[in-house]
From TrEMBL:
Record-linked Pfam families: Rrf2
Cellular component GO terms, alphabetical: cytosol
PANTHER family, A to Z: HTH-TYPE TRANSCRIPTIONAL REGULATOR YWGB-RELATED, WINGED HELIX-TURN-HELIX TRANSCRIPTIONAL REGULATOR, RRF2 FAMILY
Protein name (record): Transcriptional regulator, BadM/Rrf2 family
Organism: Chryseobacterium wanjuense
Gene Ontology terms for molecular function: DNA-binding transcription factor activity
């Protein structure tokens, strides 16, 4: 459903948010190991997300990535849109370029409601909500 870049970004941001509770900062090596992602790839993703304001970073011996209150309130849909664009929320279920209300693909009508439900779910899901569920051990980032 999400691109690999988006999957790693979401896992990394949720992990960073969880580690940021006590004003902690987390480094690339720790993030990479904790979410099972290639170190170089996650570094590039986080550099881009930091530049766009989805995560904070600090350099130096006590540096690393962290999230502030504003970041914790970010909805997941905004992160997905930033990385994967709007295709998940508006694209054709079969990947056809010409699919529309006037010229629907065989999945169009059923897929339209699935896309809408997915958009609503991701727009109402905040990073903090996932951290809370991890803390309560209701969800897991790694087996």
């Amino acid at each position: 459903m999400f691109s690999k870049t988006c999957e790693y970004a979401l896992r990394a941001l949720i992990y960073i948010a969880q580690q940021s509770k006590n004003d902690s900062r987390v480094g690339i090596k720790d993030i990479s190991k904790s979410i099972n992602s290639p170190e170089h790839f996650i570094a590039k993703i986080l550099q881009d997300l930091s530049r766009k304001g989805f995560v904070q970073s600090a350099k130096g011996p006590n540096g690393g990535f962290y999230m502030d209150e504003k970041n914790l309130g970010t909805n997941i849909a905004d992160i997905v849109r930033e990385i994967d664009g709007d295709k998940l929320f508006s694209g054709c279920g079969l990947g056809l370029d010409q699919c529309s209300e006037i010229h629907p693909c065989p999945l169009h009508n059923q897929f339209k409601s699935i896309r809408q439900d997915l958009r609503i779910m991701l727009e109402t899901s905040k990073v903090q909500m996932f951290v809370d569920n991890l803390d309560l051990k209701l969800t897991y980032l790694k087996a």
